[in-house]
Design a protein that fits this description.
five-stranded mixed sheet, Conserved hypothetical protein from pyrococcus furiosus pfu- 392566-001, ParB domain, 15 helices, about 350 residues
């Protein structure tokens, strides 16, 4: 095994320092500011402060190591095993980005080291940098540039999340799967939420959406659908809502497990196919809705892909007809940001 210190380690430290500073901003933003009233109970506040303190300690230790150029070493790629907490879904949509990374490393060398922890018998377990390790290996390089740190599972998953948050390249569903791993490591639901918010730089609403989607849609089916980089929170929540009905869930599950579904190259298209399979079943089962507004009644009838509105107030109906274009523009604005 090669374990040679690199002369240009300072360059790697500079690149990583910039990455970590972005993670620091997320931590500082979540830290309670002096003079602001706390609305949490003592127990909740203690759990939150513990999680924040752990991440601040992690940040400070990483800063100290980056300041030392001798921390970047060269390690034999055969001596490195995967992280126990995968954070990416490998599919066709990820391959193009991977090939670009490979081309970059081939032309310019490995600019950013990976992070590993000792794994016994001279081996290491990767914390982050799986794609960099794979690219270096496929290019035929025998060694990879790395930082070695002693990390427990909490520290490993925190560092992994901070790096991904700084790079902002995980998809919504990849973050949801990663959040579930953080949840399993946490001792209480409140601690889990605080860790997820800090590690993934997300809001309470995001943490709640992650949990809802993972609770309703089996992880097996999520992996068969794939990373879906163009599919954000609203449409994943929509699919999760459909899964709330066991009948509809069975319909989609049968489709996703079929060989024809897996032949769809793009994970974005696989998601759209799964959603399309669930929506007709929901519409078919819906009964007509009757909405009473003042002295007026509006009936909403769903038939297959057609929605019909009728009202007993002719003036209101005429008014509505002249404003359909405005309402449609509002609909487009409300649904233009699928994040």
């Amino acid at each position: 095994m090669s374990k040679k210190k690199l002369s240009n380690a300072a360059m790697f430290g500079s690149v990583l320092s910039d990455m970590v500073s972005k993670g620091n901003e997320a931590i500082e933003a979540a830290t309670p500011k002096p003079g602001k009233a706390r609305v949490s109970s003592g127990v909740i506040a203690a759990a939150r402060d513990t999680a924040l303190a752990d991440l601040r300690d992690e940040r400070d230790r990483l800063k100290q190591e980056l300041a030392s150029a001798s921390d970047v070493i060269s390690i034999d790629v055969t001596q490195i095993v995967p992280s126990p907490f995968p954070d990416r879904l490998v599919d066709e949509d990820a391959r193009e980005a991977f090939e670009l990374l490979k081309t970059s490393i081939k032309a310019e060398g490995q600019q950013v080291p990976i992070l590993v922890r000792p794994h016994g018998s001279g081996r290491y377990q990767i914390c982050y940098g799986h794609r960099r390790l794979r690219a270096v290996t496929e290019l035929g390089h025998g060694t990879v540039n790395a930082l070695v740190r002693e990390l427990d599972d909490h520290q490993l998953i925190s560092a992994q999340g901070l790096e991904n948050s700084a790079r902002q390249d995980l998809t919504f569903i990849e973050k949801a799967l990663f959040a579930e791993q953080i949840r399993k490591l946490s001792q209480t639901p409140k601690e889990a939420v605080e860790r997820i918010k800090l590690v993934l730089s997300c809001t309470d609403a995001d943490a709640s959406a992650f949990k809802m989607v993972l609770t309703r849609i089996p992880a097996e089916l999520i992996r068969l659908i794939g990373s879906s980089p163009k599919i954000g929170k609203p449409r994943w929540k929509k699919l999760a809502d459909i899964f709330a009905s066991q009948k509809h869930a069975d319909t989609i599950a049968s489709l996703v497990r079929a060989a024809e579904f897996q032949s769809i190259a793009s994970s974005n298209d696989r998601f759209e196919a799964a959603l399309k399979a669930g929506i007709p079943a929901v519409i078919k089962q819906q009964s007509p809705q009757q909405i009473v507004i003042g002295n007026s009644r509006v009936d909403v009838v769903h038939k297959a892909n057609l929605v019909t509105l009728s009202t007993d107030n002719t003036d209101f109906g005429s008014w509505l007809g002249t404003r359909v274009e405005i309402l449609y523009e509002q609909y487009c604005r409300d649904n233009s940001s699928d994040t």
